[in-house]
Structures
1.
Amino acid sequence: MDDILRDFISEANESIEALDQALVRFEREPEDPDLLSEIFRVMHTIKGTCGFLGLGRLAAVAHAGENILGQFRDGALKPDQSSVSAVLDAVDLIKRLLAELESHGVEQPGDDSALIQRLNAIADAGPAEAPQAVSQEPLATRIGGLSSVDCAVEIALAKARAASEGVRFHAIQEDTLNASVRDAVWAAVSGDPATDMKTLLAGLDIDSDSELRLLISCLEHGFAELGLDAATIAEVVAALAVDIPDAAQDQAPQNAPSSSPAGSSVAAQTIRVQVESLEQLMNVASELVLIRNQLLQTLRGQPESPFAGPLQRLNHVTTELQESVMTTRMQPISAAWAKLPRLARDLAIELDKRIDIVMQGEETELDRQVLEQIKDPLTHMIRNAADHGLESPGERARAGKPETGRIQLSARHEGSHIVIEVADDGRGLAVAKIRAKALAQDLITPAEAESMSEAKIQQLIFHAGFSTAAAITGVSGRGVGMDVVRTNIEKIGGTVELTSTEGKGTRFTVRIPLTLTIVSALIVDCCGERFALPQASVVELVGVGGGSGRAIETINGAPVLRLRDRLLPLVPMQELMGLDQPSRDDERSILVVRVGAFSYGIIVDRVFDTEEIVVKPAASVLRSIPYYSGATILGDGAVIMILDPKGIASRISTSPSAEAEDTETAAAADSHNVQLLIVRGQGEALKATPLQLVSRIEEIDASCVEYANGKPVMQYRGQLMPLVGLEGEAVCLEQSVSRPVVVFEDDSRAIGLLVGEIVDIVETPLHQQFRTTARGALGSLVINDHVTDIIDIAHYWSEAVAASGAGPAKASGKRRALIIDPSHFQRNLLSPLLAMAGFEVVTAEDSVSANEAIERGPAFDIILADAWISEADLPASSQAPVIGLYDHERADVPHAGASFRETANRLDRDGLLAAIDAALRPARNAA
């Protein structure tokens, strides 16, 4: 396959994917002329290029589809489901022909006459033009308008670039050249006497007679391919009014260099790179990371080495290179979602339903390797939601719902994971129906059916071969679906969680890692053997034995740990791996690992450090062992195995899916409890911050601290992160002394809070026991018999990012508050403030989930919503006052808070509490 054909296939595939999605949008928005113009341009570009390359089948199908689009554009045909479906069928055929062309290198023979006749019949159904009026029409109308000129120019320029004498056409950016030629031809055929082609193209350095002669010849060919007769083509050429000498008289110098800067000013800013080249670059970067790790391991043994400085610099450069290479592999998740609107549309037609698919977070990026793995699971979930979840229009009307069902997809970053949610507002999972089907298929016994809770019964939909469909159809009924979803997602280290309310809808939450190539891992030791465990799965580290005050207990022969009034099942690494060395009696470490909603502990002898590791596939003889997900090479050259948290969880008798319900039940019982990270400043005073706000804990020394505009900063993931000291202390580190930094991160911004010591993680209700006036504190609690101040993260965030003040907090009565904000960080930032002020806090990420919380009740006393969310989206049944929230970056934006009667700065603690107090005052007075 030559390079021209390969480039055409690549560009055509990109264009046809965009066309597929755009047509579905056009069916919903037929009055959008820009959208229609874009669809038409893509189709006729494919047609023109196919004609030039001699791809007759592709050109014929594209031409027939373009005829209908032309009728849409001219207003002669009104788009409806039938005509749009016909164009989509043409797009599907073009996809198949492109796939065959890519596989065989040449266009395969075939008969497409049935589809072409169908397309032509729809196009011919438009109003017929009067024959006698044709000769009286202007030239621009007779040639088919601007769309035909655009198409002819596409064909002409493709032919001109391929000609040996058309080499200078390649020096001009394609879009600029196409637009200039199109404007010149359109001006000529429209009768504009003030311009001609030679004048308009002179600025692009195409003013030699030989090049203009070639362009005119190619334009004649382009109009001929559109079906114009010779007389009309001659009239077009005459209208161009270009006086070109004969070729023999053309003595213009051809070797003069171009002096026009026009080409360079519009030069393309992107290049097309083969995926294989990116993979090779990733492999080289991975090897460089391994070498970096080996050098740093050597440096740890010789800290006074003269190579310490260069190696630290190499470490920074390698990290930057690694992140840059990872960025080249990142793609927006919209690439995986592109086919879903078309899928939902086709399912709606097939199932005779009305389906609206809504997407949020399309710009969220993840590794292309992960992206490919989630396409099939997403397709299965959309099909299940359309078939099993959403009701027919009649059923929805009887249930008091809108006739159009809604499927909502959302994606967001949470630490080193991507969280994807697929939710519908349909009938939900029918527990009785699932129970009956499971009994009929002997998946459970009658005794189990009576004892199983609703959540456990709902989990049965993930069982292979399970389906509640009454009959096998083209959409469902074969029992292949949700088991494929769970299997494929677990293969890439992800998890699937299910929540469903009968009559209201179902929500699937998928958590997957950002990348599978280079990950941050904890290096642990057991009986002299080292292992790596992905840090993203580790919740916390707990010491047992020795002077820790904790001990491992045994229940029914299984080891457990009492951790914050809960029993945590344990897996001893020594027994798991069959290691012979006797168990240690001194202090050991427990890695608390979470798989979905299930948590358990892994007992190891000690934990070494966190290290960026390169994931290598495990040897074939080890792939059948479920406890390993791969291997890696450490800095000292040792090859160690990477543990698979999901596989180890299978060692425990209670399955994660079954345990998830118990975990969620316990969490619901302790819904007022909050996990707190306890730290110590330079003195002995203890401080605490909600663990859900913490993004990461880093260990830094004096060499990591730099200064920007006189403010201390450190390099964090390729950006400068401000550093602030706890209790207002100056950020000043002694040489060779490490200090922990607690990182708080919100989207693209982060700050680091320098502390003296990480003490513990505890779980306790956030009920203020002592009000404080200290800057940077929300109040005080008694935690484990010690007075502990709750850190006001908003104060430090404002100090580092917005430089706003703080002051004493005003307490309110015990009431319920709802926080609506799309930012996970901002929701968690406000929660402790309101909890310390005596509120029971509920959070929601959008108006849909907020409405669900409002409908569930009890009633809320106050609602705090991000200022970019409209108050009109909230249900009228809610009588709670609503306050729109903005921050220092939005205060001067006209749209922010425009839909709210009351607004407040989310970072101004006193102002926000005062606004809440003022909003609640009428209710108190009425009481």
2.
Amino acid sequence: MDRVYDAFISYRHTPRDIRAASDIQRMLEHFRIPRAIKKQTGMRRIEHVFRDKEDLSITSDLNDTIDEALGSARYLIVICSPEAKQSTWVQKEIEFFLQTHTRRDILTVVTEGEPADVIPDILCFEDIVQEDADGNPVTVRIEREPLCCDWRLPRTRAKREELPRLAAAILGCSYDDLRRRQRQYRTRRTAILLSILIAILSLLAGYYAWSAGQIRKNYEQSLINQSLYLSSESAMHFADGDRLTAMLLALHGLPDETTDRPIVPGAIDALVQSSYAYVSPGTDSYALQYAYRHAGTVNRILSSYDGDRLLTVSGFYTVSVWDSAAQTELYSKKFTGAVEDVAIDSAGNFIILADEIVCVDAKTGMERWRYTPTETQYVAGGLACAKDTPMAAFSTSSGVVVLDTNSGTVKGEYTQTGAYDRPIFCCDVALSDDGSMLAAASLSEDTILLWNVSTALGRTIQNPMVYVNSLGFDEENALYVTVSTGMDMNITYGDVEYLMTRQQKLVKISSSGHVVYETEFSHAQRSFVSDISFMRFEQTSGQATDSVICTGGNCCHVFARDTGKLIKRIEFPAPIVAVQADGLQITAVLQDGQRAFYHCANGIVKSSRSFVDALRGAELFDGGIYVWRDEADSVLLYRTGIYDAAWNCVVEEAVTEYLPTQAGLLCLNEAGELILISPAGQTLWRTPLAMSECVLFDAVGYDPQSNSVVVSVFGQQDTANVQQYYICLIDMEDGSQEFLTTDSTARHFCINDGRLYYTVDQSGTCFLGIFRIKNHDLKAVELEKMLTPNGLFVSNDRIVITTHDGETYLAEENGKCTLLHAAQSAPDIPLVCFGDDSIFALCADDALQIFDRRNVLICSIPLNGHVLRAAALYEGCIYFAADDGKLACYDVQSADLIGETDIIGAEFASTQTQWVWNEETLSLRLGKSLNLIDRQAFAVYTRVENCIAHYDAENMLYTLGQSAGGHNRVGFFAICDLDTLITRARDQLDGLILTPRQCSQFGLVQ
């Protein structure tokens, strides 16, 4: 055998010794030698340790392999145990090894027992030959202590403390040196491992922080996306009339105590709009107040006369009564049959006609009485109540039954026999106001029936018409009936379409049963939203005439009540769903959500968008209106006089003109007084305008050097006898005024750096007027070119004049003019704005063109056919609003779009514009519409109508309100922070929350 073994392990083949021999072999061959010991001994590792793996049979000679291994091994390791000491093989291996080695090359490992009891004697004693005193050789046994390794210790401790003894002997170094080097190695290794661990932990911490940041970023983005969705849904629900749901959705899109949600501008705007924040008082404008939700589709509604109670019929069988002020349901009942009709009795209680007749107390919502028809009283669907007496009538298959509405008892049954010798089937009924006359209509018999209630005397009037639309008595108990003689249909034959239109008739029947007259009328639109209704109205045309109004389609027909003569046919722009007559005015609610008026005095129809569209019906009352839409599950309540109570009035009297300036808000009232309101909301002074019959014509501007406001007025001074244009300088300290007479053709006033500029266009000559405010020096400089100005714009170093020919000139105070740009056509609204570094922009050739200080074109931003309303340069960006309702921001150098958002007020021109910037927001007022815009998100977060001034430093909004007489008043709002807005909205909701179904619908957790 050529291999040299570092050690040979001798052991008895018992389980314990086999395990010990195997562990020692493996541990030695994998023993990590410290670098210093390697350098000292020259050994890099303990490579080969011999251990037989099979028990050898007892023979007279050692196996050749064992013999060679023992001979080539440097050390012999003996596993010592009681069994090993008795082993012949172990004894022979020791003896064979000692033939070529010394006892110092034998190492012992004790696995059990005491060393003296388990170590073979051959290793504990050595026979040596010595000479005695006589010089004779004598054999002497000397006791020796072999190197012993204690393997009785726990395995981990034995490996740590005892194995190095064997390794040190094999390596040829001291045990202490090896242990010390091991400890140094372990210390260095521990330090390295700790460093690696710290590095790994640092990397993990960095990754965790990055991952957490990404998770947080993604989470925040998901919250932002959800807030954008909720604000969009809020705006849609508000437009559809569900204001409370809109408020709830807006609140869910904003931060609260449970969600650290980023603030999205759109959600703030949705909350502002739905909570009616910053809404000024108005007299005739309707605002959505509440939506009454139902489980099914609303089929009919009925309002009490004062509007405090609402009855609704939904799902055909369910009737509810609501307290509109408390927004609570007072009564709800599901009938077993269809609800045929509802009405209000003389006491204001609700009468319900279904499979039984029920009277509900409108105030309490409690049932007052119930009447169940007999088997012969099959309910046919008509119900009517007398206004002045407690009586109600309903139609049956055999006539009409009259009830006492106080008790629900029957007062009488009225029947008449028809042509087939059987009671006439009635389908519609009417009662006179005093309850003395009763009328009914029968579709099957083409008959109108008329009874005197007290005498039960009945009359039959033949009705050859197809359908009775309505019945009604006037105060003289004359009966009016509207009937249809045909039906609407379209018939197409080839390329020709034939239109057949329903013809209407108004029939008047006297209390004695005689037909007084029949009058035909028709409608411009065939699509009827509701049946023709009947009303009484006093129409004045020179003298008062008692009239009757018939409505249907999009028309109101006014007839003379005595003769039936058509007085007026009024066409509205859409089909009528409800109508109300009062004095000389007819008010109509139209299917498309408009509220229209007809004034008999001037014969003019005016309309305005007031409600949601696709209306099916409406109920008007004083100060409010209920509306409901086709296939809708809600009834919407609109009221007048809804406004933000935080509005503070500062000018009570009527205001005709107003001018926002840096020094404050300047107002002119109807009495001709000038009033100055400070930005903080205080009245600084008021003084009469020193001019009679004056109209504040044009606001020029504020001059901070003289603390004066310059306005252009048209009027008549006390010392003059003619009206003309004046320049009025108003001292903002005390309100004193000075007037400057200008040429009658003076136009386009502009103030800058203590000077007032204007243009004068006189027959073939154009002048530039310059007035130095401080010393009242006025001069008019003739321009070297004949211009037709349509705009004048002045900055610190430029005077720009635009013309009706589409040309733009740079003018100088000496009259010199330089053509800057010649456009193909003049813009609809001339506009020039100035920015930092003397750059400026002008509107020309369907583009916004930006020039540098040398008048060189920097960039051109196309307008794509839109009319520019306002523009401003600020911090290297151009902001502009167009008639498409968008505010856009572009980079001046690159012409790249930075942001775009929807705004209000884009119908106003640039002369009515106010821009206010701060670090976070942009305030843009166009006319009387204010947009507060988050500059970072570039989105509107608050929109305010009727705003005439915004003072950012004072956090104040000035708005116009209306008095009871309809005159403008001036007041202000202190802009609320978000927490205040949220608190106010929750107060309005009064504990209302989204239903579980709505939470599921919008992806919200309850």
